[in-house]
Amino acid sequence: MLVKTSMDQSLIEKIRDSIDILDLVKEYVPSVKRSGTSYKACCPFHQEKTPSFTVSPDKGLYYCFGCQTGGDIFDFVMKIENMSFNEAARKLAERAGIDWHQEDLLTEEEKARLKLYKLMDFAKDFYHKQLFSERGANARNYIKNRSLTKETVEKFALGLSFFDGLAQAALKAGFTMDDLKKTGLINSNKTDLFKNRLMFPILNHRGETVALGGRVLGDGMPKYLNSPDTPLFSKSRVLYALNFAAPSIRKEGRAVLLEGYMDVIAAHQAGVGNCIAPLGTSFNENHAKLLKRYTDNVTVLFDPDAAGLKASKRTALILLEQGFYVTVATLPEGLDPDEYIIKYGADKFKAITQNGKDIINYQLDKFLNGAEAISAKEKSEFAAEIMDIISRQQDKIIKAEWTALAANRLGIEQSILLENLNKQKKPADKQETKEVKTEKQNLISKFLPAEISIVRIILKYPAYITLCENLQNTPLKNTEIGVILKNVALLYKESADGFGLTQKLIQTMPEFKDFILELLAKDVPQGFKPKVEIPALIKRIEDFYLQKRYKELQQQLSSYGPGQVPLTLLKEQIEIQKKLKSK
Ligand SMILES: [Zn+2]
Q: Ligand 1 centroid to 47 CA: how many Å?
């Protein structure tokens, strides 16, 4: 861990030693590939087309050149799971099979969150039990009519709410009214939120119960009701069943986006396990970013009614902007996925999810097959619409292919379509990354290429630090690089073999973490000969400062009249001249 913590340092190190950062990263970024001595992938933390996210398994570190952040396994989990350090440590310890008996170290806030998670689990179990009670016969019948099996009911932990009972039971079990309020399980009038509903626990991608959904039994309104946003749950950041779907999404290389939880449950029961759905809100950018950790391919399968079509286009646009390859699939006869599966079987459903049309073909088909005679105005409007979609495509080759396809099928010159394309505005969020970059790059651009090279080499091969002693006699000494080199020298003496040196270095100077990680992530050229090249770099740096000082002296000297030149300055200038010549 690269920031200070009260946690037992040896425990942290034990966890760090037990987990290979590459294995860990691969779980979230399946596309990571070998490149030189490190591994590369498109960054999970910012949007990009060319990989600038690197992992160095030998150092146990990752770094992204695009968003310029990095760290060790703890930093990675904290960032990608949005966890506190203690939460990440607990998760990693569990993964490594190490006892994490550090509950005392939890902050008050973390303890409070843990209690809310426990309450959500309590509610889930409470409702699940009620489904199998005597009074649950009606609900069980409904489940039977939807053809859900016992295994499915268990896997998704379906439950049943009556008109009340949860709040009292929770209070009895030691939870408070405040806990109930915070988790949204009760109304403002302090009675149960969910009344007479079939209950669907909502788990986040980590498999923690963060909310509940309820489908009304009978005619009540609304038909579907979900927990409000709470400290544990933000509906714009949770995709239903992603915890179950993740392995299948990775295996298939594709996620299938459905509209609601009944659809998802039916699909999973039919063996199509890569299906997920947003809940109580439309699919948004946060959902897309979450999904990006698992795949680059998404098939959108929404209801074929007008609202569904509109939603599928909107969703496709969001996915395109986040760099997904999007296909659209449709079911015939206006059927829902669960209706379709019952009628035609799981295999046919699976085939439909695998054979979607890419978004451009889908839109073109819909437009060209739908209308009998297309007016010039309709064509022009549609062309603008289709170019809006194409403009969001990140891959230039696909973009060109799509433009050619659209021109061909619409019978419009490509050049005219391209004019339209150039008018489309670019996604706005690119700007942000750029600004961050310039601010941080100032630190690198402040130094000579040779200075950057030397510190990069030393971070990779600290054993050569002894060759750098002379640099501490140059003005480099007082810069960021000088301080880094000094600390490397000290730490190297302490550890003898340089093991874990980078981690310790960052602990010593956390404010330079990103700078150090960035330097470390760049490869040293192949065939690098340290004993020759390090002294050569050092000489270049020394010469630079000598020449700089020489020029300064010259300027100073020229300001004195004849005979008034101070001897010390003159002597210094001669010394420099000698040094520059002797080398
Ligand atoms: Zn990044």
A: 7
Write out pLDDT tens, residues 181-203: 999 999 988 999 999 999 999 99
Three-state DSSP class for residue 515: helix
CB atoms within 10 A of CB 419: 11
What are φ and ψ of residue 62, in 5° steps?
-130, 160
Judge whether 351 lies within some domain: yes
Dihedral (CA of 407, 413, 418, 420) sign: negative
CA angle at 225 for the pair 221 and 231, rounded to the nearest 5°: 150
Cα torsion 556, 557, 560, 565 to 10°: value is: 130
* CATH classification at residue 40: 3.90.580.10
Report CA(78)–ligand 1 centroid distance (Å): 15
- Cα of 436 vs centre of ligand 1, distance in Å, is 11
The three-state secondary structure class of 211 is strand
- Among 189-203, 287-301, 454-468, the range with the most confident prediction by mean pLDDT is 189-203
From the CA of 77, how far away is ligand 1's center (Å)? 15
- Residue ranges with CB less than 5 Å from ion ligand 1: 43, 45-46, 64, 66-67
pLDDT tens by residue, 325-347 = 999 998 888 888 888 998 898 99
Say if residue 341 is in the same domain as residue 378: no
Q: Which of 211, 232, 253 is the last residue of a domain?
A: 232
Structural domain span for residue 148:
107-232
